[in-house]
Amino acid sequence: MKYFIYTIALLLSFISCSTKPNNLDTINTPNNLKFEPNEDGEYDIIVFDAQYDIYLKSIAQPKNYHSYEYYKSRNRFYVVLWNQRHMMPSVYNPNLYAVSIELDPSVNYGLDFEYKLFNFFKFIEWKYKVRLT
Description:
Blueprint: H1 2-17, H2 24-28, E1 32-34, H3 50-58, H4 68-86, E2 100-102, H5 111-128
């Protein structure tokens, strides 16, 4: 009986010392990326990876290589695919697809934005060796 009480006490001490995960961070911080116009009414993308600028200047096709409609339609496709992968962290790398992308198809984001977003997806394919098609 004495050993039984000691075992229960030891078990309770281990359980009481365990920490509970704090889910407040995941509730309060949405994992989505929404694009807002700047003061001039233009949209822009800032990628915090130095290799993206190198990719854009040396590997990517020139901006006028494709039409605005081409960039827009491909970006809608890539965004849907990206968001699907974001919703399946057990299948796809949750560090790579950490945020979902909100892109309104009725908004005219402009050629520069569509070009940079298109090349962001191409950059992800190039750098991380994943296929987004």
